[in-house]
Design goal:
4 helices, mainly alpha, about 130 residues, elongated, single chain
Length: about 130
């Protein structure tokens, strides 16, 4: 039994270190997502989306990064199930995702709000034109 204890401890240590390494699959992917998210956050600062074209572009770019983030999240979540500390790994992955999803969702919401506003203004103009005709 005394001979097995160091082997068991060594295996446990390897599992712990391996779980941390597996918890961040595609860490270069996460770095790229972080960079994209930060650049979009600067490019589309709060209140800066002012045209339909800009809103459409912001929405497309934000959705593309959100899809990459979701893909990374799902892959990381699956990798966590192979680790020793599954719940800790899942918690870390969720926290990392939350760091970037907030800015991306803000951009999407702002772009969609502007699109709705412009659409309603267009409908109001069309209604006014129809009512103005005799």
């Amino acid at each position: 039994m005394n001979r097995l204890l160091p082997v068991i401890l060594a295996l446990l240590a390897q599992m712990i270190f391996a779980s941390h390494a597996l918890a961040t699959p595609g860490s270069t992917e996460l770095t790229q997502i972080a960079n994209l998210s930060a650049s979009l956050d600067q490019k589309y600062a709060a209140g800066s989306i002012s045209s339909a074209e800009q809103a459409e572009l912001a929405l497309q770019e934000s959705n593309a990064v959100q899809l990459r983030l979701q893909s990374w999240y799902e892959q990381s979540e699956r990798a966590c199930h192979d680790t020793f500390f599954v719940n800790d790994c899942l918690s870390d992955v969720k926290q990392k995702r939350r760091l970037y999803i907030v800015a991306l969702q803000r951009i999407s919401l702002e772009a969609k709000a502007l699109q709705r506003k412009l659409h309603i203004e267009q409908l109001d103009r069309e209604l006014a034109q129809r009512q103005a005709k005799p």
